[in-house]
């Protein structure tokens, strides 16, 4: 997980900001499931 995202999540948890926690969580899962261009070339 990128450091900037860890910092944002830490701040959201400390402030108990559920909306921001949910948004950052969605961003993380989108980032993790996004297909990467280097993965496509490795499968050829």
From TrEMBL:
Domain of life, per the record?
Bacteria
Instruction: State the Pfam families in the record.
Output: spore_CmpA (PF26301)
Record InterPro entries: CmpA
* Stored NCBIfam families: spore_CmpA (NF033225)
* Name recorded for this polypeptide: Uncharacterized protein
Q: Which organism is it from?
A: Paenibacillus baekrokdamisoli
The opening ranks of the lineage are: Bacteria, Bacillati, Bacillota, Bacilli, Bacillales
């Amino acid at each position: 997980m990128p450091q900037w995202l860890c910092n944002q999540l830490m701040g959201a948890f400390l402030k108990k900001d559920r909306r921001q926690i949910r948004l950052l969580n969605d961003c993380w899962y989108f980032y993790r499931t996004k297909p990467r261009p280097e993965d496509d070339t490795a499968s050829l």
